[in-house]
Amino acid sequence: MSSALIYTLTIIFTAIGMEFVAFLSHKYLMHGWLWSWHEDHHNPKMVEGFFEKNDLFFLVFAIPSMACYFLGSFMPELRILFFIGIGISIYGLIYFLIHDVYIHKRFKWFRQLDSKYSRAILRAHGDHHSIVKKHGASSFGLLAVNNKYFKKRSEWKNV
After folding, report:
1. pLDDT value at 118 more than 80
2. pLDDT class for 110, splitting at 50, 70, 90?
3. Are 82 and 72 in contact, with CB atoms under 8 Å apart?
4. Exposed site from 65, 90, 117, 128, fewest CB < 10 Å?
């Protein structure tokens, strides 16, 4: 197998795997012992200005990517880490565009997307934000959406 193929697959699988890292981080860290950073994201009245404490997570999640870039660039035997860093960065960009731009409209770069999948993402995130407390929320992922969210809210009880 060629190096280019290995590196490409590494990037793809890392980006996909980051959805699971994001799910677990969201459920067990953000809604766990780091709730103090995440709470203002569920309670917009707590936010003063443009930034939320929740934005600190972008910095926290950038650290592994930066470390991978650094180690993969300067240590030839760890070259694969550079491509893992790219995969993490790609997921971070996707997350930013979908979560902050599309869902929360923090930037007015594009308007309402209209597909079954984009509506399911909105419904899942809306359901997650319907709980403003640390415990009791559902739908902790971003891209992997439960099948019930592809249906109208009135049909969820039947799922």
Report:
1. yes
2. confident
3. yes
4. 117
